[in-house]
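Key idea: predict the complex, not the pieces.
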Amino acid sequence: MYRRIDEKLLQSHQTPVLSYTFDGRAMTGMLGETVAASLLRNGVVATRTTPVSGAPRAPYCMMGVCFECLVVIDGIGNRQGCLTPLEDGMTIESQRGKRRLVEAVRK
Amino acid sequence: MRTLGTCDEIGALYDLLVIGAGPAGMSAATRASKSGATVLLADENPGLGGQIYRGITSTPVQNRDLLGESYWKGAGIAEAFTASSSDYIARCTVWSVERAGKEGQDSFIANLTSKGRTVTVEAKQVILATGALERPFAVPGWTLPGVMTAGAAQIAMKSSGLVPAGPTVVAGSGPLLYLVATQLKAAGANIVAILETGALRDIARGLRHLPEFLTSPYFGYGLRLLMKAQRDFSIMRGVSDLRIEGEDRASAVRFSIKGRERSIKCDTVLLHHGVIPNINMANALGCAQHWSQEQQAWLPTVDENFQSTIPGLAIAGDGSAIAGADSAAVKGAIAAVAALDRLGMRSGDTNVEDARLRRDLARYSRGRAFLDYIYSPSRDYVVPRHDDTIVCRCEEVTAGQIRQTIRELDVRGPNQLKAYLRCGMGPCQGRLCGPTVTAVMADARGESPETIGHYRNRIPVKPITVGELAQSPQSESAIKAVVRG
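Result:
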């Protein structure tokens, strides 16, 4: 879990606050955060489960190489949370295991 | 600089395509556009800076001391690039670059995807400035939530002003480990211990390069950093058999020190034992690469102008060998000048400029070998000791499975191993397991990493959707190959 550093060390002006949901829960985001950074700050432990064993995973590299932060954003899966700037009103879901064709087609 | 919001604003033809907006990429684009070359700089991050200068134009951290002057140097590089006439597109993935045109003529076709749209661009010259990534640190439990790279924590701080909230252990070796620990502590993080895993094995070889390092611009800086770390932290040296424990998330680290077993409770573990070039794109495009004993990594083979073995395609910055941000910026400029030469567009006093660039490069390279040797990763953490350690995070392939398959099926190279175990075939495309697979195989077969080789990467170098792929132009023959009738 992560937290914002002391406000004294940050820019003096107020950072606009965004709202979004993660697995249906309301979350607040800061403008300039990536999806992965915001989820970590909001106390999200695991952002996906693996397609092989279902083990929980969370952002690991934060720079687009490890693909551990894959999430579903506004219905589109396999999005790299660490490279995607957070936007107001996003619907973010954890990516659970492997995709099933039937579900994907119904969507 | 003209910022392009979407792929559709990208031109059809550029003199130079630069991939990556870190120090090497920005410097290359700035220098080339100064001589009138048309330049497109494409980068997948939200803003300029690459990872070393991540968030340089947007960081919420305004206290300059926190990230230090070496970070803020990036602001000057970004300013110069912003003032240049280059086109720049952020959040854009370049997933293929192929040679086009006649023999002896430099021309490339690249596919770029941004926000679901794909476009094809022609470029006469290409500079890959794809930077570095942290060396894989495969220990038991490294896949648990709560475990990240030290670089990842630094990125969270630079780009979003975040620090770990709970007790944090920093483990590994190398200069970045101490830098990150110091920065995180200054920002209020609770660093409960630094576990030093470095090997003393290569110190003797490193000492030969010490006199040279004493004259390095990084000597004083490094020494101050180490002294500060020594004062501020509980540093445990000679840590072996590091493991991370926890059910669904990290809850403790366990290790051996001086023959005793120890455990420290924590909820964040930051791992780091050096950086290596991010070679996936160079490898996929067919650039030759070689094993560097000094850097314990695969490096794309480049000449003194950072031209790869594909004429017209250069690899500048830490993407061709690790030497740090200052050196990367100089290498970017050298590669740009070489590209201008090939384009016949070089302007200005070339002799003076060449001399200055070579001098700067020599200055920033001085004593690098010292750092490479003394911070050489410990063998225990390059070849995982425990069979149940996950090596390929994406496909969850363990060291034991790899060793067993090599033994029972006489597997001779990493590409063959893919067919049996799927290691390296997940979304990260071997970025996080490639070096470990080569190391495990070299160890198991008693051969050198050079003999074992590395995965052969393929385009697309990043996962894209079928829809994004289908938007790239299709040739008559390609359609015939898949359409019946």
